[in-house]
Amino acid sequence: MSTTRILDGGMSRELLRLGAELKQPEWSALALINSPDIVRDVHKEFIAAGSEIITTNSYALVPFHIGEDRFQTEGAALIRLAGRLAREAADAVIDRKVLVAGSLPPIFGSYEPQNFQPERVQDYLKVLVENLDPFVDIWLGETLSLIAEGKAVREAVSASGKPFWISFTLADDEADIESGEPKLRSCESVEEAASWAVSSGAEAFLFNCSKPEVMRGAVETAARVFRKANARIEIGVYANAFEGEQGASAANEGLHDTRDDLDDDAYSRFACSWAEAGATIIGGCCGIGAAHIHRLGKTLSR
User: Could you report the per-residue pLDDT of 222-244, keeping only the tens digit for each?
Assistant: First the structure.
């Protein structure tokens, strides 16, 4: 487990904790507009907690959140700002290398595979990629609900020459947990997604923004597919701490309650299980803060 790389955690609740205002529809993009120094401070806190890879605060910089008009007039500048703040935080570290992952979100809404528009997706991804490119080391397509979203990310970053990682969000209602057969929120199987990843050129295949309970089965499935294909693709996990059923509502509908039972100790136990199953990149998503990251890093290093 000593080779596990540590990601950061969820941005939004750390922004709130440090005093930033967040409200829908802009959500974490509002911090870039009104309090960018707090965005930088969150990056620094995750680095201090042990994160080796931090993620740009570009997740909400899409028309779904900031509106079409603002995206067209201010989107490029806000995306560059998100990249610069992460880069500054990473470059301020003198005793180790911290990488910056460029967040490429689902363009048409989280947990909304039915809204995917293949004819329009590149128009928006192009703006994100062009403006993040000077600042990032890795591309991270995250919280993707269907394989077509992953294919769109691969196409968007293909000319950059930088590594790209793909992260899918999993169906995680109680019935999904009990079934033991991991699947994306589109109902495509993890096996299908992992098989696609083998031919995609992705250097890492991750699962994020789902309950911790569904993650180990997904890791085991991906590891089995990659072994069979003799593919050297890293597997990663960064789960959320959302409470209750998520499948019936979009991830962007207000501030979800978080679980009381998922403190830093409990989350680190999940992290150990994922590492045992084959995950080598581990962090946290919504509701997983710097304290969680500090604990899981210390635990996994042992």
Answer: 999 999 999 999 999 999 999 76
Quote the percentage of the chain above a pLDDT of 70.
95
- The beta-strand segments (E) located in 56-134 are 99-104
DSSP string covering 134-153? TT-SEEEEEEE-SHHHHHHH
Query: What is the distance, to the nearest Å, from the Cα of residue 50 to the centroid of all Cα atoms in its chain?
Result: 17
Both tokens of 90, joined, read: 């990473």
- Residue tagged 């509002």 (tokens): 30
Spatial CB neighbours of 82, under 8 Å, sequence gap ≥ 6 = 32, 39, 56, 57, 58, 61, 132
The Cα–Cα gap between 287 and 139 comes to 23
Whole-number pLDDT of residue 10: 97
- Phi then psi dihedrals of residue 189, to 5 deg: -80, 155
Spatial separation of the C-alpha atoms in residues 223 and 214, rounded to whole Å = 15
Tokens 């180990």, located at residue: 216
Residues 154-186: pLDDT tens digits? 999 999 999 999 999 999 998 878 877 899 999
Tokens coding 139 = 């591309």
* pTM, rounded to two decimals: 0.95
